[in-house]
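Re: the 387-residue chain
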Amino acid sequence: MQKKTDSKERLESLTSLRFFAAFYVVLFHYLPNWFPESFVDRDSHAWKSAICMGYIGVPFFYLLSGYVLTYGYGKALSTGGISNFEFWRRRFFRLFPVLAISLALGFLPLIVGLRKEALSSFDAIAQSMKFLVLNLLGLGAWFPESLRINFPAWSISVEAFFYLLFPFLFVKAQRFRIFSPAVGLVLCWLASCALALSFFGADSEIFSIPGNQPQNWLHGANHYALREFMDVNPFMHFMTFLSGVFLFQIHSSQKINTRAPFLLLASCLSLCLVVQFGDKIPYVLLHVGFLIPIFSALIIASLECQWLRSFLEIRPLVLLGESSFALYMIHVPLRDYFSFVWNHTNARNGPAFPLLISIAMLVVIGASTLLFLRVERPIVLYARAAK
């Protein structure tokens, strides 16, 4: 990679990747929910197994976030070109508007009784209001029960935690570097895997689909409390984010363009193997940081492989990538609305149900794009201008 590569060109290829990762998560949250009987025997069809691995899109976001933040703010923070407060202010305006809208979409069904956990008493209303405030403050991942309003909001808590630490950690790392970025990346990967595996007892069963109850976790400890901690706690995902920081430092200091085709081939083949045989790998590993090397290779390949970069820089793909944050945040609340309508119209049993699902996905993508164009982008531009 040339150090003077145009920033717009580089970021556009990464931006488009975000859409594919976000849409993979959408498929994971939609299809098994709407076709539960079909996914009981998911191992009999490769595509079903692939859909059930959609949760791996989330750790990809964290790795990419570390890379992009280091590219966009690392030098400015380390040289004093931007203050910590200004960095936090920009990230706030980047996240909060879409977060607030997604929580409103998730909270409304509770109020009007569209969901099973509809509010039926003053205590339930007070508790839900408390959950709403916790999520608005970016604390949902620290109180997992509050995430029932809109579960994807847990990732905002994780990102907020990263943003809080990033200016301090990056500046300190620049001043007191004790090992190379490549060593740092490897250490982060090993630490992430070790942390994940530490949650297993000696005879714990391997599982792959969130929702399957893990067996024998820490020999008698509360399964669900451990599962919630492993799923959403920011500490569990910090090494993935930090790996993205090291990845940028590696990429910016070395020319890797001649190895880009190999990295692309290796990452694609590895992902295919993981998707196909993911049920043989502990879910906690896949969800936390096991895929860091594969995702790192994919990110570098998307920047250095000329034909792939040209494809990813197609404007419609870039727009979808720019809208991917909104897509990730609103897709679960909108799924609940669609499910309510279909359950009360018996549409699930009709021959046109697959067509309805296709239309629903197009509606969700369209809504997220509109949310980006009319809300997210204008507010971000305003925040940058209003220093």
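Residues 288 and 339 are 30 Å apart (CA to CA).
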